[in-house]
Design brief:
Blueprint lengths: L1 E7 L4 H10 L10 E10 L8 E12 L2 H10 L1 H9 L2 E14 L21 E9 L4 H16 L4 E10 L3 E8 L2 H10 L1 H13 L2 E18 L2
Helix pairs in contact: 4-6
């Protein structure tokens, strides 16, 4: 089970920015937590060189629903994040396909074969660490692909996320169905060109591609 929470900050942007460097001590010894990342976001759709200093994301993977529920109901740091945010959006996900690695492992490779999705909606996460000597090529090439995804048929949500500006980049998107994703992946010319370039020119030192069933997707206004 995976959870992805987007926090939007209006009054506490500096506090939120500092959490990118201070958050790690708050994730030690949490029962059932397998993997976590505090992520910044891009100011535009998809990959972006310009940060969105009002929006951050927290990615967590869990052993089971009980561990996740316990964390969200009682963890002090999570409650602090909520109290500082103007709004937040919490998405629960169940992975059914994941290829590649993130920090040397695949955090989404455990699948629940018995899970029965209640809708056709699918989440997609792509993530890569870019070779330093390929950064210029990457940033010159990705805008057409990002624009193509944001305008693709069936996309409900699309946001760039990442750990380190310029070097470690990711995107998360929500689609109406897997058919829409496949149609875009195999038919969109700009997307296919970028995928071919990344392989032939070996842009990435590490990359990952994962698809998820959407379990739930809720948004909240805190103030």
């Amino acid at each position: 089970m995976t959870s992805l929470i987007f926090f939007n900050f209006k009054k506490n942007k500096w506090w939120a920015f500092k959490q990118m460097g201070l958050h790690r001590r708050h994730f030690n010894n949490i029962d059932g937590l397998n993997f976590y990342k505090m992520l910044g976001t891009g100011s535009g759709p998809g990959f972006s060189m310009y940060p969105d200093f009002s929006t951050y994301a927290l990615l967590l993977t869990w052993d089971n629903e009980l561990s996740a529920s316990k964390y969200f109901n009682s963890n002090n740091y999570y409650n602090l994040l909520l109290s500082k945010a103007e709004t937040y959006r919490k998405i629960f996900l169940s992975s059914f396909k994941s290829i590649g690695e993130w920090d040397g492992k695949n955090p989404f490779e455990r699948y629940d074969d018995d899970f029965q999705p209640t809708s056709n909606k699918v989440g997609v996460l792509t993530r890569a660490t870019i070779h330093f000597n390929k950064l210029t090529r990457f940033w010159k090439s990705v805008k057409p692909a990002s624009d193509a995804i944001s305008k693709a048929e069936g996309v409900q949500f699309f946001k760039g996320i990442g750990e380190l500006p310029f070097i470690q980049q990711a995107t998360f998107s929500i689609w109406d169905s897997e058919k829409h994703i496949n149609r875009f992946a195999y038919e969109n010319v700009n997307h296919k060109k970028i995928v071919d370039k990344t392989r032939k020119q070996k842009w990435y030192s590490e990359d990952l591609f994962a698809r998820f069933h959407i379990i739930s997707d809720t948004g909240h206004l805190r103030h």
